[in-house]
Amino acid sequence: MFETPGEAERGFDGLRVGAAELTARITHVRDGIGWIWVIPGSRSLPEVRSSRAYERYATCQNAFRRFVVLLAKQPPRELPERAVSLRRTDGR
């Protein structure tokens, strides 16, 4: 989770830039039937995961590959600068 939309956009941009190096862990759904892909993040929390479960392992693998290709095709985004506190130069 991100605290601001800007942080989420920067996180997405980081994924987009590193798309070629992304690897997923494909795992069976805990409470159901199917497979999901997960890109591990920090503190054992997923960075990104599939939005749905796939019936077949191979279908899940292909869905992850498509995700990476589409992610890499996203154009660079103009990200807003972080908020900077303004200070008056006249001492007030």
List the helices and strands and how they pair.
Blueprint lengths: L4 H13 L7 E4 L6 E6 L5 E4 L7 H17 L19
Antiparallel strand pairs: 1-2, 2-3
Keywords, separated by commas or semicolons:
alpha+beta; three-stranded antiparallel sheet
Task: Note down, in words, how this protein is organized.
With 92 residues, this protein is of the alpha+beta class. The protein has a three-stranded antiparallel β-sheet, with helices on one face. Strand 1 (25-28) and strand 2 form a beta hairpin. The model has no long low-confidence stretch (mean pLDDT 82). The protein is 33% helix and 15% strand.
Helix content: 25-40%
Uncertain parts? none
SSE series: HEEEH
Question: Assembly type of the shown chains?
Answer: single chain
Total beta strands: 3
What structural category do the secondary elements indicate? alpha+beta
With strands numbered from the N-terminus, the spatial order across the biggest sheet is 1-2-3
N- to C-terminal separation? 38 Å
Mean pLDDT: 82
User: Number of helix segments?
Assistant: 2
Q: Taking Cα atoms only, what radius of gyration do you get, to the nearest Å?
A: 18 Å
Gross morphology is globular
Report the portion of residues in β strands.
15-25%
